[in-house]
Amino acid sequence: MDIIKPMMTARHYAALEENPFGHFLNMPKIYHSFLNVSALLKKTYNVETRTFWFGGKTIPVVFDPREFCIMMGLQFKGIPIDKNLKIETPFIRRVFGGKLTQVKRHQIAEKLEEYAVRTDQQSIEDFCRLYIIFACNTFLLPKGNFQLPRYVYPHVEKLERVGDFAWGKLVYDVLIENIEAHLAGAGGYFDGCTIGLLAWVSERITSLGFARTHTRQGNNFDLCIFIVLFAYVIN
């Protein structure tokens, strides 16, 4: 978005201010390593209770969906996202010629650049839809194939209804599903909002009253601090 923001007009910015995903526009750059995420989960996470254990497994911190949604600025309560909804939408037909195979991450980015300079009302509305699916594709609901599940697109068709859906719960549920499959040995890589997970862990560690610095005591908590400190770097 750093490339696109200078291209946007005041009308684009105003439209995103009314968008429930608008606060991500100024999100800082975040770099993280999947190996660090995996190590964090394997050393500290309990699947049955959905709890992280720090301090040599003496400090439990429940991975609460409501806390996660508050931290992400996304709605936990609302209309559930219908994962069975896979209808073709006017937005996809209009912008991508109806070809879902063309709705990959880099194509969305290219369309964002194209629509960032268009000022007619339809184009600004489509820019907002592109912005939402770009946020979902890159860090909220990322997948290894750089595509989104088809059910996402119908839920962004009516911009005035986008904020009615429980997006935060969806992001949390998808992340949990992938975490648990990964820890069960389903594969080396897993999808989901791992950036959000690390941000949540980082915030919870601070709330426990511990300095976020690495020590050499060798317990799990210190290892977790080490992982987060180097995995969650903000420029």
Outline the fold blueprint:
Elements: H1 10-17, E1 30-31, H2 34-44, E2 45-46, E3 51-54, E4 59-62, H3 65-72, H4 90-96, H5 105-115, H6 121-140, H7 167-183, H8 194-207, H9 220-231, E5 233-234
Antiparallel strand pairs: 1-5, 2-3, 3-4
Question: Main beta sheet: strand number and arrangement?
Answer: 3 strands, antiparallel
> What are the low-pLDDT stretches, counting only 5+ consecutive residues below 50?
210-235
Quickly count the domains: 2
Span between N and C termini? 15 Å
Question: Which structural category fits the helices and strands?
Answer: mainly alpha
Query: How many DSSP-defined strands?
Result: 5
Helix tally? 9
Proportion of helical residues: 40-55%
Helix and strand pattern = HEHEEEHHHHHHHE
- What is Rg? 19 Å
Strand order of the largest sheet: 2-3-4
- Which percent range describes the beta-strand content? 5-15%
Mean pLDDT: 85
By oligomeric state, this entry counts as single chain
Outline type:
elongated
